[in-house]
Amino acid sequence: MVTAFAPVNIAWVKYMGKTDEGPSNASFSMTLAGIGSRTRIERIGNSPEVIFDFEDSPYTPPASGKEKIHRFLTSIKPFSQALQEFGFDCEVEPGIYRIHTSNNVPAGTGIATSASGFAALTLAWAAVLSGRRVHEWVDLYKTEPKAPDRLASIARLGSGSACRSFHGPFVEWTKDNRILPFSMSGPGFVDFVLLLETESKKIPSSEAHKRVPTSPEFPKRADSVSGRILRVKKALVEMDSSALCREVREEALEMHELFHTSVPPFRYLNSDSEKWLSGAPLQGTPFSEALITADAGANIHVFVREQESARFQDFLEENHRGLRFIVAKAGNGAFYDS
Predict the structure, then answer these.
(1) Nearest CA to 223 among 175, 178, 258?
(2) 3-state DSSP helix/strand/coil % of the chain, to nearest 5
(3) Alpha-carbon distances of 71 from 64, 65, 82, rounded to whole Å
(4) Which of 59, 257, 279, 280 is least buried, going by the fewest C-beta atoms within 10 A?
(5) High-pLDDT (> 90) share of the chain, %
(6) Which pTM does this prediction carry?
């Protein structure tokens, strides 16, 4: 039995659209501590073939999700190549494998559980495939810097942004599939995840990736994103809150405009989402330069500096009674859980 945890990562600069080689544009994200997916895989019975069982799991994917997971886990070649690079054989023992997954945030609501889910799944399955040397593999993963990068390259085959969940606190995923961790000096950020909707979205992110190239705004996106990532990193280094606020919010609005102008058009944001994304609830408050974004969903992420987080939580509780939210600091990447 192997258990892995992977955190969600929230993109400040989004990747939207895919090619056969990778993402249509680079992206830049913050990894969250303690929010994500925990996946346990255990062999529970004999079978002449490999069978995956999802019974008794807190999170059971829909039929299409199960098919995608089956294809991903039975495509052994990427896992085999990765294990062999570190001196391990890839042992696939036929049998029934129970996949037990739990997310500590609502799945399918724009909080990146697809990324954390495939990252945790990749990490757990790699350990299973290491066979009798599983403990050696787990120890190597903890100490070998190249191991997370290697598994990240596999995880993105299941969910592109999963590759960003193997590092933290910040990660850039380039258009040519390089994973570049990024750190900064000074106080970090805390994400307040505003739970404006908890039902799974009707248009999954995979479908959104297919539709956005039909938007007339899409062709110019790759060029604008590369410049925005440079400006975001510069603002982080210089601790320029005003520039960060502007860039992150404009990026979110630009991404959602792709959704609204694709063929056929679709929407994730509701009226509350739009109000928060506009920054209106924070105008005239000490938090007017908080970073506000939304992924492919209705829920909103408000990032404030660590030293402001207690005051911001008080602000929400006093001025927005009944609003549910989750608080998460910046964190590191996926790990094996005992």
Answers:
(1) 175
(2) 45, 25, 35
(3) 11, 10, 18
(4) 280
(5) 83
(6) 0.94
- CB atoms < 10 A from the CB of 24, how many? 20
Phi, psi dihedral angles at 292 (to 5 degrees): -125, 130
Enter the tokens of residue 160: 């592109």
pLDDT tens profile 217-260: 999 887 789 899 999 999 999 999 999 999 999 999 999 999 99
Alpha-carbon span 99 to 40, nearest angstrom? 6
Residues paired with 181 in a beta bridge? 171
C-alpha angle with apex 114: 110 to 118, nearest 5 degrees? 160
- DSSP-H helix ranges across the chain: 63-74, 76-85, 113-129, 134-143, 146-155, 205-211, 221-238, 241-261, 271-277, 309-319
Question: How many helices, marked H, and strands, marked E, lie in the chain?
Answer: 10, 11
pLDDT tens track for 78-108: 999 999 999 999 988 899 999 999 998 888 7
DSSP string, 169-228: SEEEE-TTS-EEEE--SS--EEEEEE-S--SPPSS-HHHHHHHGGGSTTGGGHHHHHHHH
The torsion angles phi and psi of 336, rounded to 5 degrees, stand at -80, 135
Please report which residue ranges of 111-165 form alpha helices under DSSP H: 113-129, 134-143, 146-155
Integer CA distances (angstroms), 116 to 158, 243, 258, in order:
11, 29, 24
Domains and CATH numbers, the chain: 1-338 (3.30.230.10)
Q: What is the Cα–Cα distance from 10 to 333, expressed in whole angstroms?
A: 13
End-to-end CA distance of the chain, in Å? 10
In degrees, rounded to 5, the angle at the alpha carbon of residue 176 between the alpha carbons of residues 171 and 178 is 35
Size of the chain in residues: 338
Amino acid type, 202: K
